[in-house]
């Protein structure tokens, strides 16, 4: 992650675009709702976008056709939930694909699905379970970031394995190969990203920045953002 421009066969590029579009569209709706009803947390939206952009632009060499890097999605997961995170990730990935040669347009659907949708959904679920168990907001941020990061790379590995199954062993053998290579760099990166998210959340909380009420609840049904 990001999967490079033109690396995936056209069939898979189209499939991941089609799967990703509804999530991004609902994320746009949620962002519009925030702008209309919760103007006091607009600065957090801007901070989250900047955080995702900066963190996800930090590339480390990994498997052929991809790279390892933090995702930055832990912060918007905590503040806004998975759907707004999907929209934020899409915008960041689009900009990076157009202007930084990081990812691309044909692979934007695949990269959004892994970094902006499935990774954040699992990170959000883990965060809510942790909060429900009494884990603090700051520590919950670590959990959200760590889980989202690892799931992002699991999904990226699955996308690559689906597109390039092993001649003997098929999808599962290819998935195992991609996961084993990614794990070398991604597990420590996930830990570092979790610490970074904790630090930002603590700083914002200490300085009285308005935190959405949904970020403070541990009830799984209480933050369907």
Number of domains: 1
Please state how the strands of the largest beta sheet are arranged side by side.
1-2
CATH architecture: Orthogonal Bundle
In helices, the fraction of residues equals 55-70%
Mean pLDDT: 89
Poorly predicted runs = 218-225
CATH topology: Arp2/3 complex 21 kDa subunit ARPC3
Report the radius of gyration as a whole number of Å. 17 Å
Q: What's the CATH first level? A: Mainly Alpha
Verbal overview:
The protein is mainly α and about 220 residues long. The protein has one domain: Arp2/3 complex 21 kDa subunit ARPC3, CATH 1.10.1760.20. It has 7 helices and 2 strands, in the order ααββααααα. Strands 1-2 form a two-stranded antiparallel sheet. The two termini are about 25 Å apart. It is a multi-pass membrane protein. Keywords: Cell membrane, Cobalamin biosynthesis, Cobalt, Cobalt transport, Ion transport, Membrane, Transmembrane, Transmembrane helix, Transport. One of its GO terms (cellular component) is ATP-binding cassette (ABC) transporter complex. Pathway: Cofactor biosynthesis; adenosylcobalamin biosynthesis.
Q: Which terms would index this structure?
A:
single chain; 225 residues; mainly alpha; Arp2/3 complex 21 kDa subunit ARPC3; two-stranded antiparallel ribbon; 7 helices; 2 strands; globular; disordered C terminus; CbiM; cell membrane; transmembrane helix; membrane
């Amino acid at each position: 992650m990001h999967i490079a421009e033109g690396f995936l066969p056209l069939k898979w590029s189209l499939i991941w675009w089609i799967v990703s579009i509804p999530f991004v569209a609902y994320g746009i709706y949620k962002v519009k709702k925030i702008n209309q009803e919760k103007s006091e947390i607009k600065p957090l939206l801007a901070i989250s976008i900047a955080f995702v952009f900066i963190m996800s632009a930090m590339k480390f060499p990994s498997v052929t056709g991809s790279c390892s890097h933090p995702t930055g999605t832990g912060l918007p997961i905590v503040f806004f939930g998975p759907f707004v995170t999907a929209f934020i990730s899409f915008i960041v990935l689009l900009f990076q694909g157009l202007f930084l040669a990081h990812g691309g347009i044909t692979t934007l659907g695949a990269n959004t699905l892994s970094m902006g949708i499935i990774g954040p959904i699992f990170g959000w679920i883990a965060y809510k379970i942790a909060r429900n168990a009494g884990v603090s907001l700051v520590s919950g941020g670590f959990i959200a970031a760590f889980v989202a990061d690892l799931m992002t790379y699991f999904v990226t590995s699955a996308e690559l394995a689906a597109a390039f199954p092993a001649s003997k062993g098929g999808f599962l053998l290819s998935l195992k190969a991609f996961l084993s290579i990614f794990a070398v760099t991604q597990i420590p990166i996930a830990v570092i990203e979790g610490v970074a998210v904790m630090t930002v959340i603590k700083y914002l909380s200490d300085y009285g920045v308005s935190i959405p009420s949904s970020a403070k609840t541990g009830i799984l049904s209480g933050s369907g953002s």
